[in-house]
## 1
Amino acid sequence: MTNILEMKPDQQVSVRDLFGIDMDLMVPAFSERDAHVPEIDKAYRFNADVTLAILAGFMKDRRVMVQGLHGTGKSTHIEQVAARLNWPCTRVNLDGHISRLDLVGKDTIVLRDGKQVTEFQEGIIPWSLQRPTALIFDEYDAGRPDVMFVIQRILERDGKFTLLDQNKVIRPNPYFRLFATANTVGLGNLNGLYHGTQLLNHAQVDRWNIVTTLNYLPHQEEVEIVAARVETMNNERDRGILSGMVALAELTRNGFAAGDLSTLMSPRTVISWAENYEIFRDLGVSFRLSYLNKCDEAERSTVAEYYQRCFDEELPESYAVGMS
């Protein structure tokens, strides 16, 4: 069996054939799938510009950050590119519970020949650095300052990582790749939507070679994705309902941009609505359970107006005021 530390891309694949992008680019890929390679989602729709940015990361070892509103599929986009390249992938969510020790490593007590001994357990950074893997830092702008300065060490292309407690310097595997996703590009919680995000050190943001933005998909593409996710609605009658769902989601996004709403519908919420409709077969009930109950009560009349415009029927008044 091949040692994962010795694995390397052993083939070149066409961007045109693999992603349908009309460019004469060849990308390194693995011919065999490792246990850490994400599963391929055949329903996933790739954004050409974002895909090219991510592929540049795999091809030329560029540090790539994908920025955008929630629910656009930023992390999934990276994973699905990796899945088609058979590139091992590790994803870490930088929530408030991730500590410096989680990333670097720590001493742990283990049993060896019936005796308790202290042994250093590698954190996710040294583990990933030594392997041909794509490390994704999810919610990058939510990381704690002490954690972010640990990450800064590896943002240089040939950045070595020093384990001070072990007197050891780790050199990155030639096929280690680094990606991140963020909602705010390190600018903080400017619009009140992303509580917990941090203002990032500009010197650190500057170390990301490529920053790309993933926006919501065009109307018809989003309909196609929801239809692929909820296959029982992939028929002529229900596609009209799906189109109305996506249209309503677009109205909430416009309303959020205009300051009329504080909660918008992401594609993830639209899929939840379609899945709940599949259960209840009641558009109003499934809408309330999927989205309306997340809204401020003062804004529900606005949302009810959006609902009426998209489905030519009134949302029951009890729903609009948040009553059972």
## 2
Amino acid sequence: MDLVGACRAFVKVSERGSFTVGAAAARMAQSVASRRIAALEKHLGEPLLERTARRATLTPFGRDLLPHARRLVQLADLLEHEAETAKRRPFRLAVPDSCPPGALARLIAAARRHELILEPRPLPPAERAERVRVQEVRAALVAVPADEAVWTVPLGLAQTAEPSGARIHLETLRAGRTDREPPRRVWLQPEDEVPHVRDPLGRLRDAVGLRPAQVRSASSLAAATAEVLGSRDLLLCSAAQAGELGLCWRPLGETALVRGYDVAATVRADGDRIRTLLGDDVAHCLGADTAREARG
């Protein structure tokens, strides 16, 4: 039995004193209202209304139950209202601040198709994780090692001039004794200031004999790109980023560096929603080729 629907019919008919008028107020057919009230009376074990040709009046039992039925209907209406409000409440998602505006716009549009009002918050890696921890956002795309990632983004080196080979080897940046120009540098953007990217690159720098200052960190992607545009320096980035910046990109020759991402959320279901509903759109934002199937 639809207890809420039956109570709604009972309340409206008792308030109007008529099955016809009460059913209309409850937005249901008179026959439906009559069946629901009859089912409610059977369920409760006593008649609620006395029926005459023109009127429906409360029985003593119905008079006692009416306030409780009215309260149940009010609570049901409140629940529906709160559910609609919750659907319209923004879902704040911390994303890399390197995500292009166009890709973020497509992500927002895709979320709307799933009745999710997404509000991206572009932030660097450490801040994204912290915002989830203090519950300032419902979820975040956090940086993780490739073997723990749902989405992976291969990294390489980009420069203003077209490279001669299919790959760029870091050892080719080693300064010679007779070089008159400053040693070429590799610039890291904040998105790659994470251990699983920064540390392997530092070890490779030392292994091929580069100077410590030849691998540098910039305060922003714009600052790193400016260094590259004004020199022979290189930017560590994804192929998608290089294309947006008008740079020529090649993968690293000595090793494979990869950005890895997963979703961190205060409620597990929120993370699952992002992975399952918006996986491919998130991949596009990150510059990943596809979204890997979410682990259980």
## 3
Amino acid sequence: MKPLPLPVRLAAGLAVTAVEQARKLPQQLVGLPVTVVSEALQLSMRVQQRVTELAIKGDDVLAVLRPAEQEPEWATFDEDFDETGADADAPAGDPWAEEERALAAEPPAVLPDYDGLSLSQLRARLRALSVDDLEQLLAHERTHAARPEFTGMLTRRIANLRSGG
């Protein structure tokens, strides 16, 4: 028997392939949303990585133009402490008495609920406070919890207000 012409054989093969793909379609449709979401997330992560890389390069370039802070207030160094490990600038005294004084102290009158505020809650209230109010909070923070992020934020806000910001 003589083989059929090539175009007829191609058409028959194409028809069978179309039927096979049509039978697989319901299974592929179930996984389609997952595939689309997965590819969208991958693209989003690639974009975020690229943005971060560009920001890091920008930071490197701009670091040349902006001088680094000499010694941040929150930074401590070995030279700041004596041989016993005590703060060299701290007044000598009974540590138990100092702790009792700190615990017995009243909350600052400016913000009576200060000790219960989170960092973001405090940040939201800073604009309404004067330099004197901020200094009172800073003194209270230093004698009580002495949390670096709180003292740093209060110190920066005081400096900004004094410089006219």
## 4
Amino acid sequence: MKRLALILALIAAPAFAVNPDEVLDDPELEARARGISAELRCVVCRGENIDESNATIARDLRLLVRERLVAGDSDDEVIAYLVERYGEYVLMKPTVDGANVLLWWAGPGLLLVAAVGAGLYLRRRSRADEPAARLSPEEEARLSELMRD
């Protein structure tokens, strides 16, 4: 029974990531905070946004988001503030500008290079499979002589 309770607690843990003491009184601000939190990555968790993470830093980031919203910042200003402070890694969907363009296009570019390389290799290989020239009568005689020995 204890194991079942532990398993259920672990499964439901992300649902309880936002603690009751973090929730804002204004439902509109809280909805904005939840929307922003869903777009921000926890800097210590892999692939988890700060809204779902139970990490201490995620809690601090959630509180910071709410603090900035209460101070009157727009959603874009809050996100810009956190990107300035933690870098673009904090975004769940990184931007497609600057140095990130190289990262966005590196995968398709390398796939294209690999496809061209494979095509050239296969074409060269198919030419190598063509039958070799026939042996001359002297070469056939010499070969049969060597095979007898």
